[in-house]
Amino acid sequence: MLARIGVEPTGDAFNSISLEPGTGRPLNPMINAGAIAAASLVAGRSDEDRFHRILSTFSIYAGRQLGIDQVVYESERDTGHRNRAIGHMLRNFDILGEHPDGPLDVYFRQCSIAVDCQALSVMGATLANGGVNPITGERAVKGDTVPDMLSVMTTCGMSDYAGSWVYWVGMPAKSGVGGGILAVLPGQLGIAVFSPPLDERGNSVRGVAVCKELSREFHLHFLRTARASRSAVRAAYDIAAVRSKRVRTEAERRVLSEEGRRARVFELHGDLAFSAVESAVAQVVECSAEQPILDLTRVTAIDDAAAVMLLDLVVALGESGKSLFLVHGSDQSRLLRHLQENLTDERRRWLHVFPELDLALERAEDQLLSARGSFVAGSAAISLADHELCRGLDADGVAHLARLAKHCSFATGEMILRKGDRAGAFYLLVAGKVSVTIDLPSGRRQRVSTLSTGMTFGELAILNDAPRSADVRADGPTECFARSIEDFRTLGKTRPGVKLVVLENLLRNASQTASRLTQEIAALAL
Fold first, then answer.
1. Which of 197, 266, 294, 521 lies 20 to 30 A from 354 at CA?
2. Is 473 within 8 Å of 434 (Cβ atoms)?
């Protein structure tokens, strides 16, 4: 393509006959001569094939099926004498390898594709999103090609107004003599403006004015945006402040409060280029935490230079006796493949990959507890008397609860409670672990909490008769005592002292949960 079409601005009008001396190449694809040459290069067995390839591609950009305005096409075809002259000059220099009538007809029809302002803005957003339509998720163009397109739009898209446009607006753009302007701010947004009255250069008068105002009001100039290196780290906190969804015993919570600063989370976001990653890597290296956790789930793109720096970070941490916990997003397989392929088998132990931050936090907590020689809840069975809910009860009170409770056993993965079911009992865990989960609109299952031996679930039914609000599954072989809600409510008449102790224990657990959530909100709001 570059052998037939250049990428230099002309400083001339869009319909100028600007051909490179000696080669006859159009100076860029944004003027008519370059667009005609580009139409001739589209793959297809016929002119009809070529045009339908163009139309289907534009439809992917717009997110809906497009068509042509037949009246506009016939006018272009019947009055486009200057364009026909350009076509014959291109054929004279062998830029067109065939008779110009075919490529010209494809070009005339391409110029007649009908879009409204909304569709044009979606096209811009598709380019801003690396070539993927942000509404349909369908890819219109390879991501590696988008920077090339935006570069030419920046220097040539507004024809002989290109310099002033970059100065005042500062976004890659393309104007059309129909009165439309398409502007793109990479990684952020697309803008379309339609207003037919044109200035002497063929650009929409109001369209230019509106884009100037938008750029000024919202600081959209691509050379005046905040430095990525300042904003790459969205949040940084240690696990003394923010914990996993694994609910811990009081002893474990105490250890994590004391030792939690040894594991620190760095949440990154946005597009990661060299400057952004350099700043984030420096923070990870300079922190005193023994277990750094890098969360990339909000990262939208990672370029090759950033991937190399993340690999260097893994090696640097590994050689200093540390490992990196990396939480990845759903579309970061390329980065993971790069890291795995460039780490030897021995060095791969320096990198631990997780699909969710919650799982990385839980692993880090387990490591801290293990390093302190602390018992991790859920690893051994207990009696009902040792359960947290029975704290403060005498032997007679425990025996009374045991007589009215039903012993239950559940296999790994077995559903214990289902969302929407009637709440008839609450459960005291005496062996194993269970996870409380909800189903998200996306179809993904989200863990709300994981409870271990000595904990309670389903207890909100004591306060109201609402249906179950989440699912509860056994994470392994699990033993519980189930206590009927109705029986517990009558306990106030038969054994009020027992009921009071149990309610105090439930209130203490609720207070600890509220305190932990408040602490997490404060940490994440920094």
1. 521
2. yes
Architecture of domain 384-524: Sandwich (2.60)
CA distances from 342 to 143, 302, 310, 318, 338 (A): 23, 17, 11, 14, 6
**Rounded to the nearest 10 degrees, what angle do helices 496-524 and 250-259 cross at?**
20
The tokens 């750029």 sit on which residue? 215
- The Cα 157–Cα 127 span in angstroms is 14
Q: Classify residue 471 by its DSSP letter.
A: E
CA atoms within 13 A on the CB side of 322: 22
Burial class (CB in 10 A: 0-12, 13-18, 19+), 329: middle
Q: Cα angle vertex 349, ends 348, 351, to 5°?
A: 70
For residues 264 and 236, the answer to whether their CB atoms sit within 8 Å is: yes
Question: Domain 230-371 carries which CATH code?
Answer: 3.30.750.24
Domains 1-114 and 142-225 alike in fold: yes
Measure the CA–CA gap between 331 and 76, rounded to whole angstroms: 43
How many whole angstroms separate alpha carbon 157 and alpha carbon 28? 9
Domain spanning 142-225, CATH architecture: 3-Layer(aba) Sandwich (3.40)
pLDDT digit string (tens) for the chain, length 526 residues = 999 999 988 877 777 777 888 888 999 999 999 999 999 999 999 999 999 999 999 999 999 999 999 999 999 999 999 999 999 999 999 999 999 999 999 999 999 999 999 999 999 999 999 999 999 999 999 999 999 999 999 999 998 899 999 999 999 999 999 999 999 999 889 999 999 999 998 899 999 999 999 998 888 898 875 544 455 888 899 998 888 888 888 888 889 999 999 999 999 988 887 767 888 898 999 888 999 999 999 988 888 888 999 999 999 999 999 999 999 987 788 899 999 999 988 899 999 999 999 999 999 999 999 888 765 545 578 888 888 888 888 999 888 888 888 999 999 999 999 999 998 899 999 999 999 999 988 778 888 888 988 889 988 888 777 889 899 999 999 999 998 888 888 888 888 998 898 888 888 888 777 776 676 676 665 5
Strands 351-354 and 324-327 turn out to be parallel
Cα separation of 376 and 248, whole Å?
Answer: 8
In this structure, the chain runs to a length of 526
Render 78-145 in DSSP notation, one character per residue. Answer: HH-HHHHHHHHHHHHTTSSSS-THHHHHHHHHHHTEE--HHHHHHHHHHHHTTTB-TTT--B-S-GGG
* 144, 150, 152, 154 alpha-carbon torsion, rounded to 10°: -150
Structural fold of domain 1-114? Beta-lactamase (3.40.710)
